[in-house]
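cron nightly-structures :: item 1 of 1
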Amino acid sequence: ILQTKLDSNLIKIDQLKERNDKQNQKIIDKLDTMKGNLRKIEHKAAKTAKYIEAKEEDTPDNYSRTSGEFDSEKIYESSDEE
């Protein structure tokens, strides 16, 4: 009787290990997917930052980003400084 219980418990342990391994693999796969998505986001963020930097360098000081027009007061301010 004890041998039968022991065998039964060993089978249950093996089944639990197998189920645990499958769950662990699912978690690993999800983490790998998240890591890939994070790399894509980081890449897009870097490209966006470079784009913004380039835009800021190309934009004159007297250009208003909000209205999309040149601000004449800033033209005078910047010419006074020179």
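cron nightly-structures :: done
The first helix runs from residue 2 to 58.
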